[in-house]
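Researcher: Going back to the complex we discussed earlier. I've cleaned up the inputs and rechecked each line, so this should be the final set. Can you rerun the prediction on the complete assembly and write out the structure?
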Amino acid sequence: MSESATPRVHIVGAGLIGASVGIGLSADGWAVTIEDVNDESARVARAIGAGGVLGDESPELVVVAAPPSVAPAVVQQALRAWADAVVTDVASVKQPIADAATAVDASRYVGSHPMAGREISGATAAQGDLFKARPWVVCPGQASEHAVSLVTRVARTLQGDVVVMDAAAHDAAVARVSHAPQVAASAVAAALGPLRHDDVALAGQGLRDVTRIAASHPAMWADIARLNRESLEVTLDHIIGDLEDVREADDIGEALTDLMERGRLEVARIPGKHGGPTRDWVPITVIVPDEPGQLLKLLSDAAAVGVNVEDITIEHSPRQPVGLTTLHVLPERAQDLLRALTSHQWEIASP
Amino acid sequence: MSESATPRVHIVGAGLIGASVGIGLSADGWAVTIEDVNDESARVARAIGAGGVLGDESPELVVVAAPPSVAPAVVQQALRAWADAVVTDVASVKQPIADAATAVDASRYVGSHPMAGREISGATAAQGDLFKARPWVVCPGQASEHAVSLVTRVARTLQGDVVVMDAAAHDAAVARVSHAPQVAASAVAAALGPLRHDDVALAGQGLRDVTRIAASHPAMWADIARLNRESLEVTLDHIIGDLEDVREADDIGEALTDLMERGRLEVARIPGKHGGPTRDWVPITVIVPDEPGQLLKLLSDAAAVGVNVEDITIEHSPRQPVGLTTLHVLPERAQDLLRALTSHQWEIASP
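Model: Rerun complete. Updated structure for the full complex:
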């Protein structure tokens, strides 16, 4: 196969990720086939352009997009079924699948983790550009150069942001940036249990932010926790230890200060825009009546003085028909914006 | 004093909350004086219209807006210094201050907790409408009707959303909706410590949401933790217990599913708009080039087909000059919006 010809790709698993890979590669002119253990899922995926039915010709690349719990076995099956094909998978945990692949043929297996975000499932939600501008982790392991370049090419074609990592390092990292935060968010939400409804209504934006991902469906997370148990346990021990240090401290204020100082240093490392340092945007909170067009008017008034809005957050008031909308802008533009909004009769809630 | 005449108010503490109360009441025509242990803070607050200098005439209402750590003592001093005045305070913890007040005169003390949000401090950030549309908890305790009506009138004048609660119930509630979530968010952030910078860059919107409040300054939180230690400990025990159940489970997947199911039920109780049930808005994610005016154009295109945007979230890509902007709209308008955006050449990232 020359580098310019596109390889025949077969996708095993027609859920959101599998179907989206199929749609994206098909749209780029690749020859794609797709299957699923569920006939109806496969039918839907094919109907929306995710690929055709596998014929007699063997695929050159197999993308395993099965649920994490079965991904190790399906990767092994694929390596055995197509003895010349490169195999990749898209699960959120990489080392257990690499181990399973190594038991068959490590040279033909490359791990992938396209970090496509939202907890939506099923082929009907699939989009060819689901991966655009999102990190797509590639774990080469002991794969051949050919295998790595093939999988990297898929990621690039789908406009993912390729990040090459060791599988174990990937699993340790996602335990801390993704898996343990999910568990902690659910635990914070579950701790609301004893409160009356009126008490829960005291919630501010802080609680909403912390618990947003606690609304996720547990099915996939259960699989992820089982596959990444070791790294998740180490991270949970870290978090539990810090919470216990606060809980047991002689001076709870001092212990919390220590924890918060360490947390602040880490938050500052989470990238802001374009991988640069996190910007110190200035928040300007405006009281926006909850009527169609008000948000547009607000942004128009900001644009009229040439102020670019870097970020927006909207906090809906539980009891009043207004939303507190916060515009985040560069510090040097904050005064201009405040002046402009005030002159347009906007009510500023807090700077 | 008649109900229509406004009482003479003296504010002790010229930080963000104290100065904002002063500005708001002064703007409404009340006679306000303000002091601070720090002369410069008092001078700044007076300069921006938060009140004058206390003269010979005794105040009828004293608002203690001192840091939580000294609030109990300052409330006692105020009750003693002005034997006819009603005294309130604005700290985030209410029972220890009520206990301190009861030792002097419970009939003249009413607890307040204006939940004004943002972690910004100092009089220069003060605004008279800091409290507008935010919950303002009033804890009557054993106060006289006159005292309760006076404090409630302050809250209403500042357009707060008055919520009457028992002090102990307030403290138990805020431990769960505010104090423990802060501790947990900091612990999740601190657990990023062992990661390399490139690994932290795998962070998605989930981690950003969970850890946003971990960027808060610890000083006030240390005070709050000391004053609300008992309720905070009970809540931390709840959270630690749930994390340990996941950590120690024979089947970590089953344990996480149980925790997430409980968390989902609680998240659904956090009010959405206007105290109604949380709306099932449909998220539509658009790839927006990071250029001035693009966000405005996006909202204009949405408004042109009459679709109201209920909420917006912006996820900045760490490596590419685009932002993934998600518009949340009513389910029945999602298809119209998708069609309109597509016809205006917007790239839709995921449904």
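Model: Worth noting: The two ends of chain B are 60 Å apart (CA to CA).
Researcher: Good, that matches what I expected from the previous run.
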